[in-house]
Amino acid sequence: MIQKSLLGLLIAASCVPAMAADWSTTELQYQIGNLKQQPFGPDADDKSTTSIYTLQHASGWKYGDNFFFIDYSDWKDSQRRRDWYGEGYFNFSLGKISGRDLSLGPVKDIGLVMGINAGGDSKVRKYLPGVQLALDVPGAAFFNTLITAYIDDSTGVAGGGAPKESNSWMLDTAWAFPFSAGSHDFSLEGHIEYIGSRENEFGDKVKAHVLAQPQLRYDLGKTLFNDPQRLFVGIEYQYWHNKYGGSVTESAVQGLAVWRF
Protein backbone atom coordinates (compact mmCIF):
# COMPACT_ATOMS: atom_id res chain seq x y z
CA MET A 1 0.00 0.00 0.00
CA ILE A 2 2.79 2.46 0.83
CA GLN A 3 4.50 1.88 -2.50
CA LYS A 4 1.19 2.31 -4.36
CA SER A 5 0.36 5.52 -2.47
CA LEU A 6 3.71 7.09 -3.25
CA LEU A 7 3.59 5.93 -6.88
CA GLY A 8 0.14 7.49 -7.25
CA LEU A 9 1.41 10.73 -5.76
CA LEU A 10 4.32 10.92 -8.17
CA ILE A 11 2.15 10.10 -11.18
CA ALA A 12 -0.22 12.91 -10.22
CA ALA A 13 2.67 15.31 -9.63
CA SER A 14 4.12 14.50 -13.03
CA CYS A 15 0.86 14.60 -15.00
CA VAL A 16 -0.40 17.98 -13.77
CA PRO A 17 2.67 19.96 -14.83
CA ALA A 18 2.88 18.05 -18.10
CA MET A 19 -0.59 19.29 -19.01
CA ALA A 20 -0.21 22.93 -17.94
CA ALA A 21 3.28 23.67 -16.65
CA ASP A 22 4.45 27.22 -16.05
CA TRP A 23 7.89 25.80 -15.22
CA SER A 24 9.41 22.41 -14.43
CA THR A 25 12.77 21.19 -13.08
CA THR A 26 13.87 17.58 -12.61
CA GLU A 27 17.20 16.45 -11.16
CA LEU A 28 19.21 13.28 -10.64
CA GLN A 29 21.48 13.64 -7.61
CA TYR A 30 24.28 11.46 -6.27
CA GLN A 31 25.68 11.84 -2.76
CA ILE A 32 28.37 9.88 -0.93
CA GLY A 33 29.44 10.17 2.69
CA ASN A 34 29.78 8.40 6.03
CA LEU A 35 26.37 8.29 7.74
CA LYS A 36 25.01 6.68 10.89
CA GLN A 37 22.58 4.08 9.59
CA GLN A 38 21.76 2.39 12.93
CA PRO A 39 20.73 5.21 15.30
CA PHE A 40 19.33 2.80 17.93
CA GLY A 41 21.12 0.22 20.05
CA PRO A 42 24.82 -0.39 20.83
CA ASP A 43 26.03 0.46 17.30
CA ALA A 44 24.31 3.84 17.17
CA ASP A 45 27.51 5.81 16.49
CA ASP A 46 28.89 3.45 13.83
CA LYS A 47 29.15 5.03 10.38
CA SER A 48 28.81 3.38 6.98
CA THR A 49 29.92 4.73 3.62
CA THR A 50 26.56 5.48 2.06
CA SER A 51 25.65 6.26 -1.54
CA ILE A 52 22.33 8.04 -2.08
CA TYR A 53 20.71 8.30 -5.52
CA THR A 54 17.92 10.88 -5.68
CA LEU A 55 15.25 11.72 -8.24
CA GLN A 56 13.88 15.20 -7.46
CA HIS A 57 11.19 17.17 -9.28
CA ALA A 58 9.63 20.61 -8.85
CA SER A 59 7.07 22.30 -11.08
CA GLY A 60 4.57 25.12 -11.13
CA TRP A 61 1.15 25.25 -12.76
CA LYS A 62 -1.96 27.40 -12.94
CA TYR A 63 -3.09 26.88 -9.35
CA GLY A 64 0.10 26.15 -7.45
CA ASP A 65 3.23 24.03 -7.45
CA ASN A 66 4.45 20.48 -6.76
CA PHE A 67 7.60 18.98 -5.30
CA PHE A 68 8.76 15.42 -4.72
CA PHE A 69 11.89 13.37 -4.26
CA ILE A 70 12.77 9.69 -3.95
CA ASP A 71 16.03 8.61 -2.27
CA TYR A 72 17.57 5.20 -2.92
CA SER A 73 20.27 4.49 -0.33
CA ASP A 74 23.01 1.87 -0.61
CA TRP A 75 25.35 1.09 2.29
CA LYS A 76 27.20 -1.75 4.00
CA ASP A 77 27.50 -2.52 7.71
CA SER A 78 27.45 -6.21 8.66
CA GLN A 79 25.86 -6.82 5.28
CA ARG A 80 24.95 -4.93 2.09
CA ARG A 81 21.74 -2.96 2.56
CA ARG A 82 19.52 -0.92 0.28
CA ASP A 83 16.35 1.06 0.97
CA TRP A 84 14.24 3.86 -0.42
CA TYR A 85 12.41 6.85 1.02
CA GLY A 86 10.28 9.53 -0.63
CA GLU A 87 8.37 12.72 0.04
CA GLY A 88 5.89 14.67 -2.07
CA TYR A 89 4.01 17.96 -1.56
CA PHE A 90 1.15 19.58 -3.49
CA ASN A 91 0.76 23.31 -2.84
CA PHE A 92 -2.41 25.12 -3.95
CA SER A 93 -1.71 28.85 -4.11
CA LEU A 94 -4.56 30.95 -2.70
CA GLY A 95 -3.24 33.94 -4.64
CA LYS A 96 -3.32 32.09 -7.97
CA ILE A 97 -6.70 30.50 -7.29
CA SER A 98 -8.37 33.76 -6.17
CA GLY A 99 -6.56 35.95 -8.69
CA ARG A 100 -5.71 38.38 -5.88
CA ASP A 101 -2.49 39.78 -4.49
CA LEU A 102 -2.26 38.24 -1.01
CA SER A 103 1.15 39.70 -0.17
CA LEU A 104 1.54 41.16 3.31
CA GLY A 105 4.91 42.32 4.55
CA PRO A 106 7.48 39.60 3.77
CA VAL A 107 4.75 37.10 2.80
CA LYS A 108 4.23 36.94 -0.98
CA ASP A 109 1.62 34.20 -1.05
CA ILE A 110 -0.18 31.62 1.08
CA GLY A 111 -0.92 28.09 -0.05
CA LEU A 112 -2.76 25.02 1.16
CA VAL A 113 -0.47 21.98 1.15
CA MET A 114 -0.99 18.23 1.17
CA GLY A 115 2.15 16.15 1.71
CA ILE A 116 3.02 12.48 2.01
CA ASN A 117 6.19 10.80 3.34
CA ALA A 118 6.80 7.10 2.74
CA GLY A 119 9.57 4.57 3.38
CA GLY A 120 10.41 1.12 2.06
CA ASP A 121 11.67 -1.30 4.71
CA SER A 122 10.24 0.82 7.53
CA LYS A 123 6.79 0.76 5.88
CA VAL A 124 6.30 4.29 7.18
CA ARG A 125 3.57 6.51 5.77
CA LYS A 126 2.84 10.04 7.00
CA TYR A 127 0.31 12.62 5.79
CA LEU A 128 1.15 16.31 6.13
CA PRO A 129 -1.76 18.71 5.52
CA GLY A 130 -1.01 22.34 6.25
CA VAL A 131 -0.06 25.75 4.85
CA GLN A 132 2.87 27.13 2.91
CA LEU A 133 4.13 30.71 3.18
CA ALA A 134 6.09 31.99 0.18
CA LEU A 135 8.41 34.67 1.58
CA ASP A 136 10.09 37.60 -0.17
CA VAL A 137 13.73 37.32 0.93
CA PRO A 138 16.36 39.45 -0.86
CA GLY A 139 18.66 37.38 -3.05
CA ALA A 140 16.60 34.20 -2.81
CA ALA A 141 15.30 32.34 -5.87
CA PHE A 142 12.68 31.02 -3.43
CA PHE A 143 12.21 30.92 0.33
CA ASN A 144 9.23 28.88 1.52
CA THR A 145 8.05 27.84 4.96
CA LEU A 146 5.71 24.88 5.57
CA ILE A 147 3.64 24.43 8.73
CA THR A 148 1.84 21.08 8.68
CA ALA A 149 0.38 18.30 10.76
CA TYR A 150 2.38 15.04 10.88
CA ILE A 151 -0.22 12.27 10.77
CA ASP A 152 0.88 8.65 11.03
CA ASP A 153 -0.71 6.01 8.81
CA SER A 154 2.05 3.39 8.99
CA THR A 155 1.51 -0.36 9.15
CA GLY A 156 3.45 -0.63 12.43
CA VAL A 157 5.25 -3.63 13.88
CA ALA A 158 2.28 -5.91 13.12
CA GLY A 159 2.76 -5.10 9.43
CA GLY A 160 6.50 -5.79 9.53
CA GLY A 161 7.58 -2.15 9.73
CA ALA A 162 8.75 0.45 12.23
CA PRO A 163 6.49 1.09 15.24
CA LYS A 164 3.43 3.24 14.62
CA GLU A 165 3.54 6.69 16.20
CA SER A 166 1.10 9.24 17.54
CA ASN A 167 0.53 12.36 15.48
CA SER A 168 2.65 15.50 15.68
CA TRP A 169 3.49 18.57 13.58
CA MET A 170 6.26 19.85 11.30
CA LEU A 171 7.90 23.18 10.53
CA ASP A 172 10.08 23.21 7.40
CA THR A 173 11.87 26.03 5.59
CA ALA A 174 13.42 25.55 2.14
CA TRP A 175 15.51 28.06 0.19
CA ALA A 176 17.83 28.69 -2.74
CA PHE A 177 20.33 31.57 -2.95
CA PRO A 178 22.18 31.74 -6.30
CA PHE A 179 25.35 33.86 -6.41
CA SER A 180 28.40 34.43 -8.59
CA ALA A 181 32.13 34.88 -8.04
CA GLY A 182 33.58 36.38 -11.19
CA SER A 183 32.44 34.17 -14.08
CA HIS A 184 31.64 31.22 -11.79
CA ASP A 185 28.10 30.51 -10.60
CA PHE A 186 27.14 28.93 -7.28
CA SER A 187 24.00 28.23 -5.30
CA LEU A 188 23.42 27.75 -1.58
CA GLU A 189 20.20 25.78 -1.19
CA GLY A 190 18.50 23.23 1.02
CA HIS A 191 16.08 23.02 3.91
CA ILE A 192 15.79 22.75 7.68
CA GLU A 193 12.91 20.99 9.43
CA TYR A 194 11.61 20.52 12.94
CA ILE A 195 9.23 17.66 13.79
CA GLY A 196 7.65 17.63 17.24
CA SER A 197 7.88 14.81 19.77
CA ARG A 198 5.42 11.94 19.83
CA GLU A 199 4.99 8.40 21.21
CA ASN A 200 5.34 5.05 19.47
CA GLU A 201 2.92 2.14 19.78
CA PHE A 202 4.84 0.78 22.79
CA GLY A 203 4.46 4.02 24.75
CA ASP A 204 8.09 5.07 24.24
CA LYS A 205 8.86 8.73 23.57
CA VAL A 206 10.01 9.65 20.06
CA LYS A 207 12.03 12.82 20.51
CA ALA A 208 11.55 15.99 18.50
CA HIS A 209 14.23 16.29 15.85
CA VAL A 210 15.94 19.00 13.82
CA LEU A 211 17.23 18.08 10.35
CA ALA A 212 19.25 20.55 8.26
CA GLN A 213 20.56 19.69 4.78
CA PRO A 214 22.20 22.72 3.11
CA GLN A 215 23.95 22.22 -0.23
CA LEU A 216 26.66 24.34 -1.82
CA ARG A 217 26.58 23.82 -5.60
CA TYR A 218 29.01 24.91 -8.31
CA ASP A 219 27.77 25.18 -11.91
CA LEU A 220 30.37 22.94 -13.55
CA GLY A 221 28.35 22.60 -16.76
CA LYS A 222 28.68 26.32 -17.48
CA THR A 223 32.45 26.23 -16.95
CA LEU A 224 33.21 23.06 -18.92
CA PHE A 225 30.55 22.97 -21.62
CA ASN A 226 29.04 26.47 -21.72
CA ASP A 227 25.77 24.78 -20.69
CA PRO A 228 24.59 26.57 -17.53
CA GLN A 229 22.15 25.15 -15.00
CA ARG A 230 22.71 21.59 -16.14
CA LEU A 231 25.61 19.93 -14.27
CA PHE A 232 26.55 20.80 -10.69
CA VAL A 233 29.09 19.53 -8.17
CA GLY A 234 29.46 20.43 -4.53
CA ILE A 235 28.81 19.26 -1.01
CA GLU A 236 25.85 18.67 1.26
CA TYR A 237 26.18 19.08 5.00
CA GLN A 238 23.73 17.02 7.05
CA TYR A 239 23.00 17.91 10.66
CA TRP A 240 20.36 15.70 12.28
CA HIS A 241 19.69 16.19 15.99
CA ASN A 242 17.83 13.21 17.49
CA LYS A 243 18.02 11.22 14.26
CA TYR A 244 14.79 9.24 13.70
CA GLY A 245 13.59 10.52 17.10
CA GLY A 246 16.37 8.76 18.99
CA SER A 247 19.31 10.20 20.96
CA VAL A 248 21.92 10.19 18.16
CA THR A 249 23.09 13.38 16.45
CA GLU A 250 24.40 13.18 12.87
CA SER A 251 26.95 15.66 11.55
CA ALA A 252 28.34 14.69 8.16
CA VAL A 253 29.63 16.20 4.92
CA GLN A 254 28.72 14.39 1.69
CA GLY A 255 30.06 14.79 -1.83
CA LEU A 256 27.39 15.88 -4.31
CA ALA A 257 26.84 15.67 -8.08
CA VAL A 258 23.64 16.86 -9.81
CA TRP A 259 22.34 16.47 -13.36
CA ARG A 260 19.38 18.73 -14.13
CA PHE A 261 17.04 18.20 -17.08
From TrEMBL:
* Signal peptide start and end residues: 1-20
Task: Tell me if Transport is a UniProt keyword of this record.
Answer: no
Sorted alphabetically, which keywords does the UniProt record give? Answer: Signal
Tell me the InterPro entries matching this sequence: Channel_Tsx-like_sf
UniProt name for this protein:
Nucleoside-binding protein
Q: Give the species.
A: Oceanimonas smirnovii
